[in-house]
Every structure is written in structure tokens, then in C-alpha cells.
Amino acid sequence: MTSPDPLTPRLPSPHQEIRDDRFGRHGLRLLLKRDDLIHPDLVGNKWRKLVPNIAAAQGRALVTFGGAYSNHLRATAAAGRLLGVPTTGVVRGQELADRPLNPSLARCAADGMRLHFVDRPTYRRKTEPDTLAGILRAAGAEGAYVVPEGGSNAEAVRGCRALGVELGGHADVVAVACGTGGTLAGLAAGLPAGRRALGVPVLRGGFLEADVQALQERAFGARSGTWSLDDRFHCGGYARTTPELEVFARDFEQRHGLPVERLYVAKLLYGLVTLAEEGAFARGSTIAAVVTGRPFPEDPDGRPGTPPGLNRPL
């Protein structure tokens, strides 16, 4: 994938074997696909999803969407700073307009992103053509290239296909945490025959099966690759964790000396340990877990303090 970014990404990202008895006693190998090391500002799947969209924009300003603690907004703002591309972030929650910016939105603003706050009912209708046109007018972003919430569209899915290609010769099962499903859609399409992809949704609702298939159809014309979802490990929904998950994440960090981002990566790893104990993987298999993000510096535990009750991807 050709990158317009002036800083060279680390691609393919490295994979790292983790020796963990919870896998070893079942005859399994665990690899971490360190997409968190691709780029210091566009971490993990953000690079793979945003760079194709920036290329498609052909120099136009970018507008995108997210909640108050959106990793996607932060990554888009960083991309705009690096490339000199104007960015606008449409933020869910008109009530936030008069409040001090939280660390996530402050980072966006520091990177030059203009923030436009909309009420929640309008935000829910943002994909409707008339509503979207009204939002763009109000934000002064008419003519901008629109990147959807979470960055998942056909361009992003095609960008994530390289992830499957990179891992195809190294793992039997490749697992990734899912918000909007774009990374899974591309990953699965890039894997060779005989390999499969597993998605671990971090949202409740069970809607991702249809969403992933629709993304593949838009990107490739049809469902592609072998993939499935396991909806049991969302811990109550997006930005929610449980005491059990927190104990698991801290234990994993202590065992392996690696920081674990809580909202996606911890749920993925917890799910894989559970599945290994259940005998879901054949002995002799190599399981690769895609590390799609890392804790931000102002949040060493990877928990941005998102208000409870949010259950959509940010």
C-alpha cells in the first residue's frame, strides 16, 4: 500500500510470539500482530484504514465523525497535521460544545481539527443524505471528503486486506477486536485458503455479521474469505469493562511486560484465552491476535474515562 505520509510506516508490522501456558497446555501457539507499532500517531488499523481514504480524497479536506473519546477522531486529526490536510470532526453531543475539552478532543484540536458538535438525534441520522448535507453545511465542510465513523468503508477494507496477506503464512486463525467491522472484512479477504479470521465485537447488539458482509460486498463484490464472530466478550458494550476484565488485563501485562489497551485489545485477548480453554482451536494451531491499538500516554491503563452507557464505536 503506497502511503502519502511523510513519515515511513513500519510495514509489514512485526509479529511476536507470546509464551503463555493458557495456550501452551492446549498445544497452541499465540502470536501478537503488533499493528500498534506501525506509526507513532496513526496506530494500528488506523493507518491501514485512513491512508487509502486520504489517497482517495486527492487533497480535499477531510470530515469524519465520532464520540467524545474517539480514537478515530484522534487519528484523523493526527493524519491531517502530518499531511497538511484540513480536518473537521463532527462530535456526538451538542451539550459538549460549552464544556472544557476532554483530553481526547483537546488532542484533536491541538492537531488542527475543527470540532463541530451536533445533538444526538441528528448524529444518529448522519448517514441520511439530507441530514448529512445539513451537517456539512453547518460545519462549513461542504465539498470535503467524508470518512465514516470508525473509518470503515470500501477504501479502508481494501487497505486492511494487506493485514491478512501479511499473516497468511504465519497463523491458522487470526483474531481481531471489532468496532465497525472494517478491519475484519479486509483481513479475512487477505487470508489464503485454509486460514480463518475471528472477530470479537466490543459492542453489544449482534449487528456486525450483516455489517461485515456489506463492507466486503462494497469492497470486493461479494463475501470473501472464511470468518466468524463471537459476541460473548463485549463486557456490556463499547467503553465498558468489568472487574474481571481489568484483573485479566493487569495479569497479562505482568506476565508479558506489554501494555494492554482495555476497550479493544483486552477483550480480544480475554476472548482468546476463554476459547482456548473451551477447546475451540485444534491442537497444533497458531493463533494470531491483532493488536490494533495501545494505551495513550495520558491514560496508561487504556481507559479513557468514557461515560457509562455508550455502546456504539467511538
At a glance:
This protein is an alpha/beta fold. It has 11 helices and 10 strands. The strands form 2 sheets. The chain has a 6-stranded mixed sheet with strand order 1-2-10-7-8-9, sandwiched between helices.
* Outline type: globular
State the helical fraction.
25-40%
Structural class: alpha/beta
Calculate the mean pLDDT score and round it. Answer: 91
Number of strands: 10
Low-confidence region ranges:
1-5, 299-314
- The gyration radius over C-alpha positions equals 19 Å
Spatial sequence of strands, sheet with the most strands: 1-2-10-7-8-9
Can you tag this structure with a few keywords?
disordered N terminus, 314 residues, disordered C terminus, alpha/beta, 6-stranded mixed sheet
Walkthrough of the structure:
The chain is an alpha/beta fold and 314 residues long. Helix content is 37%, strand content 15%. The chain is built from 11 helices and 10 strands. It has helices at residues 21-24, 45-57, 71-83, 103-110, 120-124, 129-139, 154-167, 182-190, 208-220, 243-256, 265-277, and strands at 15-18, 29-33, 62-66, 87-92, 114-118, 145-146, 173-178, 196-201, 227-229, 286-290. It has a 6-stranded mixed β-sheet with strand order 1-2-10-7-8-9, with helices on both faces. Strands 5-4-3-6 form a 4-stranded parallel β-sheet, with helices on both faces. Helix 3 (71-83) runs parallel beside helix 4, helix 7 (154-167) packs across helix 9 (208-220) and helix 10 crosses helix 11. It is globular, with a radius of gyration of 19 Å.
